[in-house]
Design goal:
single chain, mainly alpha, Growth Hormone, Chain: A, about 80% helix, membrane, transmembrane helix, MFS, MFS_dom
Length: about 425
């Protein structure tokens, strides 16, 4: 085969698989937020009860991230992703069987455990299939599936609720994962074993000169405990810990915010929510494109990531003004900008893990950092639940949301500063 043989570009098929998996992942976790008013009446939930549902998910998700991150590094992305999806799809459907608050808590915990495998597997797949100059864009594309899932949910779930009831909303959305699984098993394999990829694309994937055999050798694995002694691991951990909780707030509390503040009817398809989550799709892909464009323009990789992330941190600041929104569309604009900036930030912070660490350690690092994000997602709901319940008891729940938006506005700049202090140059780790 000659050097000028066109490469096959099969890696974009792989990104499409990751995109749809992430879409399903977020569709399944978003259902409960849209059914919150219905389930509050069905099971007589308070804000504290709903907070406990969120925390049950987050605790299991945090534990699962550590387990799945190391597990996927050991058994590989194909089987690791398969097991993760089966667990979370069954758990999503199991919500329909819950007869009590405790039953819902168990279903949420099972869902969190299964869904925790998605991002460690997906980021490792991107590291396996893309050179560094394309990883942020690829990550941004598949990460936008989170937003598509959040866009589809406000349309699909109310329709299922109205026609079939809340139980079928969980069953139908949970079953979609098994459709994806068929395509995953048929279409996916690592590049060196895939029959649909030619030598030109393999060479392009490894054009950053990483040793292919070392990177993919099954015996050359790294224990995640060993990674805790590396400064670059903590750079990723801190960034995730401070910013992931903001996204969980957008996922689990925005429907309730629009319902209580602007009287949005969540039993019908919700255009404001669709617009907010559509904006995040643009942010995710645009965020990945921006840092990739910086790199292709000659900017060093780590400087490109940091510059892009600083821009996105600034874009979150205007959410502070949501307290002054006089109508729902002003709130949609401010919150949509912040949510889009989060996803742009997310596309880049995930890519820093694959930039700094060799492929054989990527899933473990992503698992550790994402676990930290989930721990933040466990702590933050305690604060949210306390603030909102106090504001509700005082007769003005909007005040509680205003306090939370102020915290959201500052989180990304604080995270960026601490990441910079921990790893000013973000050097590549040699294991």
């Amino acid at each position: 085969m000659t050097n000028d043989t066109p490469k096959t570009n099969y890696r974009w098929v792989v990104v499409a698989l990751l995109f749809f998996a992430t879409t399903i992942n977020y569709l399944d976790r978003q259902v409960i937020g849209l059914l919150k008013p219905t389930l509050e009446k069905e099971f007589n939930w308070s804000e504290q009860d709903y907070k406990n549902m969120v925390i049950a998910f987050q605790v299991a998700y945090a534990l699962g991230l550590v387990l799945f991150g190391n597990f996927i590094d050991k058994i590989g992305t194909k089987f690791g992703y398969t097991i993760s999806l089966i667990v979370w799809s069954v758990a999503a459907m199991a919500h329909a069987l819950a007869k009590s608050t405790l039953g819902f808590g168990a279903a949420r915990a099972s869902l969190g455990l299964g869904e925790s495998g998605n991002f460690p597997a997906a980021i490792k797949v991107v590291a396996e299939w893309f050179p560094k100059k394309e990883r942020a864009l690829a990550t941004g594309i598949f990460n936008s599936g989170a937003n598509i899932g959040a866009v589809v949910a406000p349309v699909l779930v109310p329709w299922i609720l109205g026609v079939y009831g809340w139980q079928m909303a969980f069953i139908i959305t949970g079953a979609i994962g098994f459709v994806w699984l068929v395509f995953w098993i048929i279409l996916y394999e690592i590049p060196t074993r895939h029959k649909k990829i030619n030598a030109a694309e393999v060479a392009y994937i490894h054009s950053d000169n990483e040793d292919v055999e070392v990177a993919e050798a099954p015996e050359a694995k790294v224990k995640w405990v060993e990674l805790l002694g590396i400064r670059q691991t903590w750079t990723f951990v801190v960034g995730k810990f401070l910013t992931d909780p903001i996204w969980y707030f957008f996922l689990f509390w925005l429907p309730s915010y629009f319902s209580t503040t602007f009287k949005l009817d969540l039993s019908k398809p919700s255009l404001p929510l669709v617009l907010v989550y559509t904006a995040t799709t643009i942010g995710s892909i645009g965020g990945g494109f921006l840092s990739s464009w910086f790199i292709k323009s000659g900017m060093p990789i780590f400087k490109a990531r940091k510059t892009a992330m600083f821009i996105f941190a600034l874009c979150v600041l205007p959410i502070f003004a949501a307290r002054y929104a006089g109508n729902i569309w002003q709130a949609v604009g401010l919150i949509g900008l912040a949510a889009a900036a989060h996803q742009a930030w997310s596309a880049n912070i995930f890519t820093t893990a694959s930039d700094m660490f060799p492929k054989r350690a990527v899933s473990s690092v992503v698992g550790i950092g994402s676990m930290a994000g989930s721990v933040g997602g466990i702590v933050f709901p305690f604060f949210i639940g306390w603030v909102l319940q106090s504001a509700k008891d005082a007769g003005n729940i909007t005040t509680g949301y205003n306090i939370i938006f102020s915290v959201c506005a500052c989180a990304y700049l604080v995270a960026w500063l601490l990441m910079h202090l921990l790893s000013p140059r973000m050097k590549v780790v040699k294991l």
